[in-house]
Amino acid sequence: MSVSGFLFYIFSAGAVLGSLYILSAKNPMKAAFSMLFVFLCTGLIYLTQGLFFTAAAQIIIYAGAVMSLFVVALPSMVFSKNPEKKRLLFSAAAISSAVLLFYALFPSKEDFALVSYLPSSHTIKDLALVLFNSYWLQIEIISIILFAAAAAAYLFISVKKEAK
């Protein structure tokens, strides 16, 4: 196994473990920093595959902009101490995560391989063809989730301004 392959598996394991910590963390700030770790691992995975632009975009956009929003927004949020509400939220999150995971893994049933099936040139055009032909549903789901997150952040900020 090459060094690049070894690093790929190390960063993949780091991303999976970081994701599990996000789900199990009691402190929202620790979960946010674990999310930062997952974003960085994902960017490094792209880097080991030779996708330099995608790695830079991942680290700059997600690890930079989104995490700065979390670090600013989380301390000002009020979290519920009601265990019944927490149980309901956890159940809803678990069900929606299971549904999204099913749809994310659905195309992989046909052709699952541990190696990337992108052409060796790794151009942005090749990546776009794979993403928007094979994974169009996942891209649409992610775009809706990101739009909802942006709308919720705007609503949170506008309600906070009105309260002052």
Summarize the structure.
The protein has 164 residues and is mainly alpha-helical.
Task: Find the CATH topology of the domain at 1-79.
Answer: Four Helix Bundle (Hemerythrin (Met), subunit A)
| Elements, N to C (H/E) | HHHHHH
Q: Quickly give the structural class.
A: mainly alpha
What is the CATH superfamily of the domain at 1-79?
NADH-ubiquinone/plastoquinone oxidoreductase chain 6, subunit NuoJ
Report the uncertain regions: none
Radius of gyration equals 18 Å
| Helix proportion range | over 70%
Overall mean pLDDT score? 75
Indicate the overall shape. Answer: globular
What assembly state would you assign to the polypeptide chains in this entry?
A: single chain
C-alpha end-to-end distance:
59 Å
Structure description:
- Helix 1 runs antiparallel to helix 2 and helix 2 packs antiparallel against helix 3.
- The chain is 77% helix and 0% strand.
- It has a domain of 79 residues: Four Helix Bundle (Hemerythrin (Met), subunit A).
- The longest helix is centred in the last third of the chain and has 28 residues.
- With 164 residues, the protein is mainly alpha-helical.
Features:
164 residues, mainly alpha, Four Helix Bundle (Hemerythrin (Met), subunit A), 6 helices, 0% strand
